Amino acid sequence: MKSFLSAALVAIVSVLLVFCGSGRQAQKGNGASVIDSSKGLKDHFANSFAIGVAVSPRALKTDEAALIRQQFNSITPENAMKMGPIHPRENEYFWRDADSIMAFAETNGIRVRGHNLCWHNQSPRWMFTNEKGDTVSSETLLQRLKEHITAVVGRYKGRIYAWDVVNEAISDRKDEYMRNSPWYRICGEQFIAKAFEYAHAADPGALLFYNDYNEIDPVKREKIYRLVKRLKDAGVPIHGVGLQAHWAINEPGDEELENTLARFSSLGLQVQITELDISVYNKEHNARERKPEDGNTDFTADKEQKQIDRYRKCFAAFHKYRKQISSVTFWNISDRASWLDNFPVRGRKDYPLLFDKNLQPKKAYWEVVETAH
Ligand code: HAH
Description:
single chain; two-stranded antiparallel ribbon; 13 helices; binds ligand HAH; TIM Barrel; alpha/beta; disordered N terminus; globular; about 15% strand
């Protein structure tokens, strides 16, 4: 009797387990396929590339934390490791925010991409001037850069697997190679190679990236390619190129995307998609306009469909180049709040990500997942 009861119990529990298991099979909207919703993006793409997300320390204290744990296996601090926030005064570092992101990552077995060590934006005021307010010499600026990189990379040695060493050093102007930044004006092009050397010395195990945007533009793309190729050929410790991928419902075109991935793959270095988002506003028309073309700032069905198509095409292309692409990182978590709500115009709501404001996967999410299988 006793053994009959325990056998019956085992049977009931097994049936329940199977039932619960199948309850986690989500039916895709059109019923075309069944995808296990207990898996996150990181699991679907486990055989292709890491899936990352840009985070703030604040987000990690909200319900977004659970979503991050479920979906992502890489995180990038959105601002906490940038030079201005982390090194506000010459001999003063502010580690709290960066440390809290590291703690979250390490507790949850998530990898960290460091962002970034040298950039013309969000750099501290003191960096380029002396006490009298005069512009510093090239020697002083390189010394300051070295101290900064040695301190930041050294603090997280062995714990940050990849760094964006130099961000956005290439000009957007067709007739100009390097961006006319204080780094370039004071040091010339050498600051780039130096930054990589300082980072490599501070953590020889970290993968070092050059990172930039407008990478799909044929003119800027060639300038980025040329810079990275020259660094590589000169023996500078550079291991990859980061393509920010701040795209939109009308870009990149199929050919633009293919050419971009083919070109950067040919460098023989790693390629990472570092800041992906797909704005629902057409790039050219809306660059400076508060009002979108259709006068509507809602996430309309038309925008939704265009975004779905663009996301699917992007991930199909990433899949094709999965041997070269080692990670794909989204720039923010959900449409609840993203940097695009304030860029390029303040206060224009955007819906650029795969999760909606309630942290639910959008239709585009399921299209992206399908490209992995
Ligand atoms: C990126 N720049 C930066 O790499 C990232 O650190 C920041 O948080 C958001 C976007 C993209 C960009 C920009 O900042 C200005 C003009 C064009 C593109």
